[in-house]
Amino acid sequence: MENTNAPLRRASFTLDGALYTHLDLPGMYGADYFRLPVVLRLLLENALRNMQDAERDAAVGSLFSWLEQGTSESEIAFQPGRVLMHDTTSTPALVDIAAMRDALAEAGVDPGVLNPVLPVDVSVDHSLAVEAYARDDAAALNLDLELRRNAERYRFLRWASKALSNVRIHPPGTGIMHTINLEQLATVVCRQPGADGIALHPDMMIGTDSHTPMINGIGVLGWGVGGLEAQTVMFGMPTMLRIPDVVGVRLTGALQAGATATDLALTVTQRLRAIQVSGEFVEFFGPGAATLSAGSRCVVANMAPEYGATTGYFPIDGETLAYLRQTGRPESHIAMVGAYAERAGIALDPAASPRYTRVVEIALDRVRMHVAGPKRPQDLHPYGQTKAILADLDFTPRATGGALPRHAIAIAAITSCTNTSDPRLLMAAGLLARKARQAGLKAPPWVKTSLGPGSPAAAGYLARAGLMDDLAAVGFDIVGYGCTTCIGNSGPLPAAVREAMAAGTVHPVAVLSGNRNFTGRIHPDLDLGFLMSPPLVIAFALAGDAEKDLSQEPVQYAPDGRAVHLRDLWPAEADIDAALAAGLRPADYRAAFRIASANPAWQALQSPDSARFPWDPASTALRRPPFASTEAGSQLGRYAAHPLLVLGDDVTTDHLSPASAIPPDSLIADFLVERGDDRSDLNVFASRRGNWQVMMRAAFYSKSLANLLCPDAPVGHTLHAPSGRMEPIWEAAGHYAQAGQPVVLVAGARFGTGSSRDWAAKGQRLLGIRAVLAVSFERIHRSNLIGMGILPLRLPEGVTPETLRIQSGDRIEIDADAAALAPRLAVPVRILRANGAIEPLAATAAVETRLEVSLLRKGGVIPAILSDTIESAVHKP
Predict the structure, then answer these.
(1) Spatial distance between the Cα atoms of 528 and 524, rounded to a whole number of angstroms
(2) What is the DSSP letter of 828?
(3) Rounded Cα gap, residues 642 and 796, in angstroms
């Protein structure tokens, strides 16, 4: 092995008269460097550039030692260059910062000293709801409604952009954050002018959304983190991680006609979940990788959280450069990216086989048209099997003779950055719509249709290809540029569906081109959803019935009685190529973004100019949170706690902190109406993430969440053990707190899967939960729990909530000594049964780094930031 403690060496090259310099990693480390996966080469570059002396040498040594076993227990510091957020993760983060400024002022410290030190881009994309649809003015109507509903919150965001350094807001209508990142923000390679030339290094970032790895599709290393972890990075701390295991996915062959990038992404999701990927980095390599366009790569990379990974990385190559050219980047920059990637040894070599922890093989030419669902993204099926899958549900209508099929399609949405950022998929959908229009087909009236692209540039290229009218003719008018249905902002169901559900004659289904289909995710009243490609969404919308086998049965009958099958509608690859050639114009991307950014209604929003935010005590949208305090302390120690809830497997962050519409008949609605809000226009839970009082009450509010302590409890209720009363969860938590009785939570496998929302952890902290004992944790939620000072504990092998059989009155004793806590430490746990029996367990702290231990000892991220800021101010000369 080459000397891993070699002195730093820089190389240089000249391009178009400019002198560029960069770390010469191939020259420093030789053949061993190319044995590393590219993602670890990038972590190596980051460590060399940002770490100092002994720590740097230790990190380098650990990275090369990884080659021996393909795994490591060593930690490494990662310093991203920028942070990306969206409005419903940035709002609580910025509320925290505003509250921390208040706490600093009250401690006698200038609140203006608290500012992000990294660039923070905020995309306002998560609040657009599909109210108007299937009409040519739908986008304008939905945007107007969004601005009216969220004006107070948006004024707060504008305050933050003025009061805080390095915060930039991209207003509603500019697109989805991950598409903006691809089309506008990512440089792929960063440049820093200096006296000895222009220094180059890779573009690396983090984002407060689990689908941040979409940017991996163009060679940018980035991943999703919780808002709390992002706050530590914003204020200058590196993010610490154990040197990751890296799963190599070797791709061979090429996708065949009819198979889309969506089908590949769903195949990858199924294959990697089957081998229980959980937090590893994933890197794609092999000859098949080189055959995929950057757009296709981004679709696959976007699904990283669905296949359990931290990343879904594709190295830079000619397809990356073609994408930069397609989206209007300067030719000089494109040439520089290509030259740097080759010289730095981070370009895709289709023939290379680096060392990986393990390797999965996928033959692209064997990928076929699929759907996934109806409740999890990893449940993969041939597209014709929806009929058989739904038949197994054994739904029996309460009445017969209804006008709708029993599994009527209620929502058909081309939605989400996942698939709408790839122009090829949108062109395919438009061409299918054209053929359907020519055959005289229309979606049945009970289907709510929508097209929500990730970028306003999509309208330009679809129109130039002549496809907008075809899409509109079958109901797929553009409803706006935001996450819409994918995030649960699908708006109300059609009246015909609501009436049929009330009558018990239908069990409706959603079809969408998104990335998640958890129960209640798409709409709180829908528990069935299939993920599929954009053209297939249109085909199912036209069918109107999810029980149709579209591989055999007609999609619909034309007005002349002719049976129209999917094969009659599916576009030829050559036709998609022609549409792309006709529609794409590089200048569109910058122009469309510039026009959307200048939205007069956004610019007209007035916001305060003060260093501290003036809280309105009557607001139901924004309140100063109690955990942003200098007095919050550690929750570690030895204690015996009541289980507040006992939950099963696959509890998602949608269960823990819902994002979709606030039910008008809920306790949360009652709370808001009592404070003056309109019960018929309460907006979505995500719009209330700036108000801790609402979000505490919303914690665990899900019809599909089963509390094993009391399986028959109403939604959002639990059993208060000392009194035996069934109470709203937040009330029971309050009664435990008043009596000085700690509470914990018990859960099954994959606890916290889904979105990165930090409120899934903040809600638990406000309910007084000190620890969560689970079979396993999803990566981002585990980090968020630690960020709120909540100790995550893994149950011993073979122990589950079901085997524990915890009953009301049982207590759980945890001995988590703060001084002794260390990564992956065994933590003694005892089940204290109500009948006096005692059952010991050896749980494991799901803590990966020394930084996480430090955060738990301080009570979480916010107390840590406050204490560091105050100490710095006190000792400042």
Answers:
(1) 11
(2) E
(3) 20
Question: Phi/psi class of residue 657: alpha, beta or left (left: φ > 0; alpha: ψ in -120 to 50)?
Answer: beta
Say if residues 776 and 750 touch (Cβ distance below 8 Å): yes
pLDDT in tens, 433-445: 999 999 999 999 9
DSSP lists the bridge partners of residue 840 as: 830
Q: What is the pLDDT of residues 369-417, one digit of tens each?
A: 999 999 999 999 999 999 999 998 888 888 777 899 999 999 999 999 9
Task: List the structure tokens of 383.
Answer: 């597209």
* Sheet with 246-252: strands ordered across: 311-313, 281-285, 246-252, 358-363
Taking Cα atoms as reference points, which of 271, 79, 295, 22 lies closest to residue 178? 295
R_g over Cα of the chain? 26
The residue ranges of DSSP E strands in 98-172, in sequence order, are 120-123, 167-170
> Is the CB of residue 242 less than 8 Å from the CB of residue 848?
yes
Q: Is 635 helix (H, G, I), strand (E, B) or coil?
A: coil
Contact criterion met (CB below 8 Å) for 142 and 132 = yes
Contacts of 846 (CB under 8 A, 6+ apart): 774, 777, 782, 792, 793, 794, 824
- Concatenating the DSSP letter of every residue in 234-273 gives HTTPPEEEEPPPEEEEEEES-PPTT--HHHHHHHHHHHHH
Contacts of 722 (CB under 8 A, 6+ apart): 642, 735, 739, 741
Sorting pLDDT into bands at 50, 70 and 90, what band is 488? very high
Residue 65 predicted with pLDDT over 70 = yes
Give the pLDDT band of residue 221 (cuts 50, 70, 90). very high
656/762 Cα distance (integer angstroms) = 10
Which tens digit of pLDDT belongs to each residue from 678-697?
999 998 899 999 999 999 99
Q: Cα–Cα distance between 852 and 779 in angstroms, integer?
A: 13
- Residue 830 to residue 839: CA distance in whole angstroms: 5
Helices 457-464 and 586-597 cross at an angle (nearest 10°) of 130
For residue 298, name the pLDDT band (cuts at 50, 70, 90). Answer: very high
pLDDT digits (tens, 9 = 90+) for 829-846: 999 999 999 999 999 999
CA–CA gap between residue 762 and residue 712 (Å, rounded): 26
Q: Is the dihedral of CA 82, 781, 758, 873 positive or negative?
A: negative
Cβ atoms 152, 138 nearer than 8 A: no
Residues 6+ apart with CB under 8 A from 85: 93, 120, 121, 122, 123, 177, 207, 208, 209, 227, 230
Sheet hosting strand 197-202, strand order edge to edge: 10-15, 18-23, 197-202, 189-194
pLDDT at position 1: 47
- Looking at the whole model, is its pTM more than 0.90? yes
3-state class of 279 per DSSP?
coil
Cβ-contact 771, 637 below 8 angstroms: no
Hey, which bits of 79-156 come out as E strands? 82-86, 120-123
What tokens were used for 51?
A: 């770490």
- For 235, residues 6+ apart whose C-beta sits below 8 A from its C-beta are 114, 116, 117, 865, 868, 869
pLDDT of residue 401: 75
Q: Side-chain half-sphere of 363: how many Cα atoms within 13 Å?
A: 2
579-632: pLDDT as tens digits = 999 999 999 999 999 999 999 999 999 999 999 999 999 999 999 999 998 887
Which backbone phi and psi does 845 adopt, to 5 degrees?
A: -65, 120
Q: Is 663 exposed, middle or buried (0-12, 13-18, 19+ CB in 10 A)?
A: middle
- Per-residue pLDDT of 865-874, as tens digits, reads 999 899 887 7
- End-to-end Cα distance, the chain: 47
* Residue length of the chain: 877
